[in-house]
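Reopening this one. Same input as before:
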Amino acid sequence: AGAVNAEAERLRLRKEQERLLREHQSLTQKLENPAFRERAPKLVVAGAEQLLKENLVQQKKIEETLASLA
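Same output, byte for byte:
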């Protein structure tokens, strides 16, 4: 049963990792767009920057967890 649970957890983490990667790409694209940075309120830009930082932290935690399950 433990092996099944570990495999299920790996699958869940990989799906979450894929979602985070898509989110990361979207946020990066948005933040690299000069028009977004010029037109968006500073709070919106700061919020997107914060989300990007949190996303990277979550990705790192998932990578560490996947490594420990291997």
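So the earlier flakiness isn't reproducible anymore. For the record, Residues 2 and 8 are 10 Å apart (CA to CA).
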